[in-house]
Amino acid sequence: MADDLFKALADPTRRIILDELTEKSGQTLFEICSRLSMRHHLGISRQAVSQHLAVLEGAGLVETRREGRYKFHDLNAAPLRQIAERWSASDPDPPEPEESTP
To answer: Whole-model pTM?
Structure first.
């Protein structure tokens, strides 16, 4: 799971998509494409955005739901929290580094 997460976050376009979903969750593909074009001046096709969303969904960062003919994309920050917790210090008082003397 961590490999998929880091792969998803490695691409700057996917990070921009996540930023947009953070600002406004529940967007359709059309809305995401419009925001990428207008706010970030990215000339990217709907198919390319759809592929980026598939990678984000595969990593668990985006969840989708269908309502009629529309598919809405929502941010899921749980995988990011899991990664942060993975490397969080479990010792509340970590040892201080030793000073080296020349």
So the answer is: 0.81
